[in-house]
Each structure stands twice: as C-alpha cells, then as structure tokens.
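Office hours follow-up: a student asked to see two folded examples consecutively, so here they are.
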Amino acid sequence: MTMNSALADRLLQRMKAGECLKVPHAKASDLREFNSARSKCHDNVNRWCHENPGHKPLRGWLVTSTVFDKHSVVDRGPGGLLDITPLEDRSYSSFLPEDGSQGEFEKLPNQVIALDI
C-alpha cells in the first residue's frame, strides 16, 4: 500500500480531471459459461481474452473514493469495456485506465491511498 506518493498524487489528479470511466459489470448473459473468480481480476481477464479473440485486457485502477486498487477489465472493442470480476453488489466500476506500459504497471503497488490535502 502506498500513501502520499507521487503515484498517489498523479492518480488523484487524473481522477479529479474526470479520467475515470464507468465500466459496467458483466451480467450472467454477458458471461455465458465463463466462470469468474473473486479477487482474480487479472487472471479472469487474461483467460477471457484468450477465449475471446479480439478482446484485450485493460489494466488500471478500481477507484473507491480516494483508494486505488489495481484492476483489470475487458476491452471488447466496439462492444465497449466490461468488468467480468465479481464485486460487491455494483452495477458498474469506477475505473481509471493505467497510462503507463504493462511492465511499469506490474511494478506498481497493488493499492494506493491518496490523501486529498
């Protein structure tokens, strides 16, 4: 967990600038026979994209207030973004796409808490 860092400041600035996306959560009809596991967003998305050619993983941050958790969603191209990982009774995720490379993203902490001071 990282607090009060340059990363926290950058994420908070991007959130305030309106860069967060509302990503719908998958319904049973979206998932069909696909089984998605809680707390395994990166694995779920990687497996989904392997099974659905043309879909791509999108890495970024699940945003809850000023807490940023690493998260992955599916980019279905013209079908839009979709969050396939079960979360607590939400119809959509507030998602901030990562603006760095995959390699840079992997080196970042799993959670960042930004204090709005």
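And the second, which I mentioned at the end of office hours:
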Amino acid sequence: MVIQLGYQDDYGIRKGLLSSVQAISLKDNPDKARGVRGVFCHYEEDGLFPNIEKSWSINRKAFEDG
C-alpha cells in the first residue's frame, strides 16, 4: 500500500508536498520485509505478532549506517 500526499492542478500535474508512505503487511511472515529500505519503521500491533523479534532482526540491518 502506498499513500502519496499532494494534489493535481487543472492540467493534471501533481503538486504539493508529494511525500509518500509505504506500508507492508507481514501477516506472520517476518521475511516479507527483507531488503526494504527506509528512514522510519513502525510495527503496529506488535503484541499480536509472534515473530516480532525475528522480523526486527531481519529489518534492522536496512536502518543501520555502515
């Protein structure tokens, strides 16, 4: 799922902030986010996800510098 802010003018050209958010549903598969890079990562309902530690250990390398 991708959400992008902004608007289209009368000529169909996208204007505004144009920032975007990408969401990934892991659905009990911690390897699904492997290789995804970003600036910020947020896990929702992490108390219900049994593989949260494995998922974060896989995804953490994409957020470390060096």
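Two things to take away from it. Helices lie at 52-59. The first strand starts at residue 2 and ends at 4.
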